Amino acid sequence: MPSWTTLRFAASMVRPAWSRALPDLPAETHVPTRLDLFLGYLKVGLLGFGGVAVWSRRVVVEERRWLTEREYAELLGLGQILPGPNIGNVTVMIGRRFHGLAGAVLATAGLYAAPLAILLGLCLAYERYGGLPGVATAMHGIAAAAAGMVIGTALKMTARLRLPPEALAVLLLAAVAAAWLRLPLPVIVLVLGPLSIAAALWRAGLLRHG
Q1: Model-level pTM?
Q2: Claim to verify: residue 20 and residue 94 sit in the same structural domain
Q3: What would the pLDDT profile of 7-61 be if each residue is shown by its tens digit?
Q4: Exposed e or buried b per residue across 147-183, where buried means at least 16 C-beta atoms within 10 angstroms of its C-beta
Q5: Higher confidence at residue 106 or residue 206?
Q6: Total number of domains constituting the chain
Q7: Which residue range forms the structural domain that includes residue 186?
Q8: Helices (H), 15-57
Q9: Is 90 exposed, middle or buried (0-12, 13-18, 19+ CB in 10 A)?
Q10: Could you give the 3-state DSSP secondary structure of residue 67?
């Protein structure tokens, strides 16, 4: 399995252009124990109804301070283009960074333990009561709330990262491609990924002449 340094290098090549322009924030970070990893991701999985992206960032960056905003953004960018669930990929990388294979296993187990138990219970309940009109209405309300949480987290991260103009353009293009044009994620990555990297190189002055 590649080292943390290798993962960070790979993330720097695929993350959005804004990440290169983002300074390392002077935030103190803490190294979690193995138990901390398990309990932290147990909380993420337990509270992450409708998706764990919101709670993953909140627990890792804001509450526990295991990573800075920039480090988390790098891993999230890498997790987005790898096969499988993006937060699951990020969980494995974070767990391995701090405690190797054991950390990756414990963090992943914590992430999926609570949702699996709840899902089994809900499946049994839905099989029995799913035909009731009130159940369908409640599910629509939960879906709307979950979508709002995801959008709110995206806006919060965007505000903190202080995107340059070219990065904002890439961000808006990605949003339009996904939300309105409904293009597949691989197509968006293949088209906008090189554009984002080129914008980052230009911002760093590596594509300018003279």
Answers
A1: 0.57
A2: yes
A3: 444 444 444 443 444 444 445 888 999 999 999 999 999 888 767 888 899 999 9
A4: eebeeebeeebeeebebbebbebbbebbeebeeeeee
A5: 106
A6: 2
A7: 164-210
A8: 17-21, 34-47, 53-57
A9: buried
A10: coil
